């Protein structure tokens, strides 16, 4: 039987509405059934299922497919695994889909299959060794992880100092052991005389091991097997294969630091828990947790606090609701369970949960000592840290934070605007500008300092009113110029009108110098994005309006010169139907020298008229 034939048979035997109803609630509406889409944060019942056509589609996020595709995406498993589950649900005899094992192997290279086989064999060896090792059994008994159920669920074993020899005796080669991460470059076993924890991928296959020191003689408490063709830390969450069903049933997950913490939660009756294994969350990790509430419960030491802060920053620009469990003990979850009992641990999880936003804000507020002394520099650094953490967060989070800052520090804070190109990806290489690049390379970063420039370009009369108390704070919080502001704070009084020309000249010079550096920073964008961005920065109508202004202020003339250069650049690059990369990059490189040339107003007016 072919895969397509098996899929057709599944569709004949199963009702798609009944299948999807096992995972989410559906209600009938006309000829269709609707429900909340599980593949994004849905509040409008965007998922529609058609019983006759045996398909589903979300009209919000676009996810669509049939029975097998829904199971695959909901459980976050491979297509083959989803096909097996659907076939079982349809009561199809296993002999009808035994060929899937062969099909599964066709999805991997020969080397990957060998690694899977070797790691599975090694895991069995470690588990057998555990039963023979008094050292391992005593440690497991002391930590209360010695029950057969726990040892089986978490693949607990013991690696003695003869792992390499045993595997070679069983016809495995040294290069195979090295490729699987069992031995190092010097052909020595990586894990020796340690309690072992098997690390499985989301499909439940052993991909690596971690070894816990039992002698207290090693500087490293844990040692992990090295990355290999089937093990990449950036794509593995420990215990995810055990927890995924519970995670998506409850729409909630607990993130802890290590293996023992995961086991402690399990012993306390909490199964929707995973560990990050000492690495930062990647996009692959976050994708596995899409649409679920995330609770962070890390150690209460300095390293744990830093890790918590990094996780909050990483998760801030995603749609997950993130909370932090405030650990009131200087112990990890396993130690709390052993010393205080599961009731205390569960009570802490329920009662000590705070919003990650509040946690980060209050922690930073305390770190910068703002409860006691609202020092100018501390406020500056505090605002920078807030912006660094939540700069890419949704508007609702930013609005909440600005209200907190208003309440605590009594000024109106505004986040820097930011632009993230659609082509950006963590896994893409960093592009550097090359004249022969097919795509145009340029970066126009829409930060608040650039919005300030636009304001001055379009409203030159506002320059006269620029320096008042309220705008002082805005200039500070947007980080326009540390050096300038430091000089300004020390040497020039805001109220000193006699210094206004000097201040305005300083600001204009600063903005003038910023143009070239801002334009020359690069990342990959397409031509349409480029034109849209430039148009956001400069519109020839602004400059035309400025030219009609009769004020003869040096400051206005300097601002006029800035907008002139940008406008000329913008008008020039619209000439060809398709942009010539080398010509445009050369033009950018000439902006600095053009700025110094100080074109005359007459010549520029003629230029604009010619363009009309």
Automatic annotation (TrEMBL):
InterPro entries: DNA_primase_core_N_sf (IPR037068), DNA_primase_DnaG (IPR006295), DNA_primase_Znf_CHC2 (IPR036977), DnaG_bac (IPR030846), DNAG_N (IPR013264), DnaG_primase (IPR050219), TOPRIM_DnaG_bac (IPR034151), TOPRIM_dom (IPR006171). Residues 251-330 form the Toprim domain. Binds 1 zinc ion per monomer. Coiled coil: none annotated. It is an enzyme of class 2 (transferase). A zinc finger (CHC2-type) spans 37-61. The keyword Zinc applies. It comes from the Bacteria. Its cofactor is Zn(2+). The keyword Methyltransferase does not apply. Keywords: DNA replication, DNA-binding, DNA-directed RNA polymerase, Magnesium, Metal-binding, Nucleotidyltransferase, Primosome, Transcription, Transferase, Zinc, Zinc-finger. One of its GO terms (cellular component) is cytoplasm. Pfam families: DNAG_N (PF08275), Toprim_4 (PF13662), Zn_ribbon_DnaG (PF01807). It catalyses: ssDNA + n NTP = ssDNA/pppN(pN)n-1 hybrid + (n-1) diphosphate. One of its GO terms (biological process) is DNA replication, synthesis of primer. Monomer. Interacts with DnaB. Belongs to the DnaG primase family. Contains an N-terminal zinc-binding domain, a central core domain that contains the primase activity, and a C-terminal DnaB-binding domain. RNA polymerase that catalyzes the synthesis of short RNA molecules used as primers for DNA polymerase during DNA replication. This is DNA primase.
């Amino acid at each position: 039987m072919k895969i397509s034939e098996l899929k057709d048979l599944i569709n004949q035997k199963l009702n798609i509405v009944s299948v999807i109803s096992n995972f989410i609630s559906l209600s009938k509406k006309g000829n269709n059934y609707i429900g909340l889409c599980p593949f994004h944060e849905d509040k409008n019942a965007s998922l529609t299922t058609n019983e006759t056509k045996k398909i589903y589609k979300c009209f919000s996020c676009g996810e669509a497919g049939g029975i097998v595709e829904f199971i695959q995406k909901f459980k976050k498993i491979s297509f083959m695994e989803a096909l097996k589950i659907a076939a079982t649900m349809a009561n199809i005899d296993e002999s009808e889909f035994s060929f899937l094992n062969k099909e599964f192997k066709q999805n991997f290279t020969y080397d990957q299959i060998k690694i899977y086989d070797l790691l599975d064999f090694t895991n069995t060896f470690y588990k057998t060794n555990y039963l023979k090792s008094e050292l391992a059994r005593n440690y497991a008994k002391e930590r209360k992880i010695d029950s057969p159920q726990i040892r089986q669920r978490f693949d607990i074993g013991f690696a003695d100092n003869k792992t390499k020899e045993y595997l070679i005796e069983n016809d495995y080669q040294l290069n195979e052991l090295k490729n699987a991460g069992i031995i190092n470059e010097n052909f020595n076993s990586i894990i020796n005389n340690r309690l072992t924890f098997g690390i499985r991928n989301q499909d439940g296959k052993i991909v690596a091991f971690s070894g816990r020191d039992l002698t207290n003689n090693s500087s490293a408490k844990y040692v992990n097997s090295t990355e290999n063709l089937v093990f990449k830390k950036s794509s593995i969450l420990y215990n995810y294969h055990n927890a995924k069903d519970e995670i998506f049933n409850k729409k909630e997950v607990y993130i802890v630091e290590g293996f023992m913490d995961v086991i402690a939660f399990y012993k306390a009756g909490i199964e929707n828990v995973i560990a990050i294994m000492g690495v930062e969350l990647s996009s692959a990790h976050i994708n596995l947790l899409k649409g679920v509430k995330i609770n962070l419960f890390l150690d209460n030491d300095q390293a744990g606090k830093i890790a918590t802060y990094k996780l909050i920053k990483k998760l801030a620009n995603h749609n997950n609701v993130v909370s932090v469990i405030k650990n009131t003990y200087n112990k990890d979850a396993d130690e709390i369970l052993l010393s205080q009992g599961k009731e205390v641990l569960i009570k802490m999880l329920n009662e000590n949960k705070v919003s990650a936003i509040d946690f980060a804000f209050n922690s930073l507020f305390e770190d910068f000592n703002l409860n006691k002394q609202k020092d100018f520099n501390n406020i500056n650094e505090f605002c920078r840290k807030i912006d660094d953490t939540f700069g890419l967060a949704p508007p609702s989070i930013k609005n909440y934070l600005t209200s907190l800052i208003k309440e605590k520090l009594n000024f109106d804070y505004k986040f820097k605007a930011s632009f993230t190109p659609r082509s950006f990806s963590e896994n893409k290489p960093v592009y550097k500008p090359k004249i022969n690049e097919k795509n145009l390379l340029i970066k126009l970063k829409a930060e608040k300092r650039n919005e300030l420039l636009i304001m001055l370009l379009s409203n030159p009369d506002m320059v006269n009113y620029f320096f008042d108390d309220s705008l002082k704070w805005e200039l500070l919080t947007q980080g326009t110029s540390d050096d300038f502001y430091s000089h300004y704070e020390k040497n020039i009084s805001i109220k000193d009108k006699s210094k206004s020309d000097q201040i305005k000249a300083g600001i204009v010079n600063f903005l003038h110098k910023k143009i070239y550096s801002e334009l020359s920073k690069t990342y990959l964008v397409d031509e349409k994005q480029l034109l849209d961005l430039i148009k956001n920065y400069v519109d020839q109508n602004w400059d035309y309006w400025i030219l009609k202004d009769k004020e003869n202020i040096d400051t206005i003339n300097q601002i006029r010169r800035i907008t002139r250069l940008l406008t000329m650049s913008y008008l020039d690059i619209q000439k060809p139907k398709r942009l010539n990369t080398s010509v445009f990059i050369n033009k950018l490189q000439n902006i600095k020298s053009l700025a110094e040339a100080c074109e005359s107003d007459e010549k520029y007016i003629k230029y604009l008229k010619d363009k009309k």
